[in-house]
Amino acid sequence: MSIRNLMxxxxxxxxxxxxxLIAAASSGTVLPIYILDDVNAGNWKAGAxxxxxxxxxxxxxxxALGHRLWVFSGDPLILIPQLVQAQNISGIFWNRCYEPWxxxxxxxxxxxxEQSGLEVKSYNGxxxxxxxxxxxxxxxxxxxxxxFYKGSRAKGVKISHFLSKKPALTLALCDQPKxxxxxxxLLPSVPWYSGFTQYFTPGEAGAEDKLERFVxxxxxxxxxxxxxxxxxxVSRLSPHLHFGExxxxxxxxxxxxxxxxxxxxxxxxxxxxxxxxxxxxxSLLFHFPTLTEQNLNPRFNEFPWLKDQHLLQSWQRGETGxxxxxxxxxxxxxxxxMHNRVRMVVGSFLVKNLLLHWREGASWFWDCLLDADLxxxxxxxxxxxxxxxxxxxxxRIFNPVTQSRKFSAEAYIRQHxxxxxxxxxxxxxxxxxxxxxVLSTADVVPGKxxxxxxxxxRISRERALExxxxxxxxQPEQKR
Length: 480
Fold this sequence. Notes:
46% of the residues lie in helices and 6% in strands. It has 480 residues and is mainly alpha-helical. β1 (4-9), α1 and β2 form a beta-alpha-beta unit. The longest helix has 23 residues, at 265-287.
């Protein structure tokens, strides 16, 4: 074929159910490229854990493409016009991204390319609904999840007929060296990520395997089991979805089919509700692009956040003296992931018990999470802090001890905080209150081999309530 099309992979590192790739392949030879863009990303270039995943995901995609993926590092606004000219490109195809910085870059690039007479086609390869499709009756965006959820379910999900299909590709030859991916320098010099491979396999095949395991073994207990960090009742699909190694339509349809087949419609709906929360986050950041730095609720602009580097580092290192918090933070460091229930607990502890700014938590998660996703990360932290959409009420302060007991976190704590492994179940949630003989038998010495609590839960809760009460005299919250 004489027509040569440029397929620009971004957050869609898969062949199956990839609308831009299908369109590019249908009209000509395909030149597949990936560009690591740290230029336009600014503060939002991928964090360290995400870069590990990205490298291995690109390796998997390159292999699936017969090692014909071209990779570059730099500014697409410069690199793509150069490629167009050098490779005699007729059309450029990509799937849309929705982060504010990517929207600005892509809009500028598309306008420039079209001005040069080139065909530029973009598609939805990431979401169930575009952010401008699920709006209130007056055309404004939802700021509360439940109406958003009801509105989306009323619209329904249109499942692509390409779900299980990979396009027939005629690929342009790749004249880059075998070591092309190494040139991106995605791995940090210290291999702290060595434990990631024990839990995840980046790439399209890894995503399919993770989905299959979940619908067979996790979905049947999802509604209740998702709250128990020691159980395997969550999908762990979030990194695969973030990098687009599997389409959200494929995940939605698999959950629907598994629910019907096993009479588990309720569990399937609860899981799909989490997928809609992901859509809600994308919608909010699309319509309110300053939320990465600003509170959705402006009353919180005057919130009396503290600055305490010692407390922040204790939280980051999992050395707070509260086992569930510490287990979550250590799970994050060693695996690049954290159970969702525990994310809420460690988030609440940071912003309410420690009174540290939600942006401190968002920044740490951005660097350490394999599934670091700008809309989800931003809006979830604002939710926990109480300043975002559908925010947790100011008086909802997760007690890490109560949560640990309620959701049977004993095995989870023993896995990630091994110095407490010998403690009986009764005392492992709050070792600071355990009798001396129990601690001695378990080889636990508070303040030496396990830290004393960095704050008192009752006192810090009262302090947080006072801080939230101080907002009552501020300007009223904007109508939702």
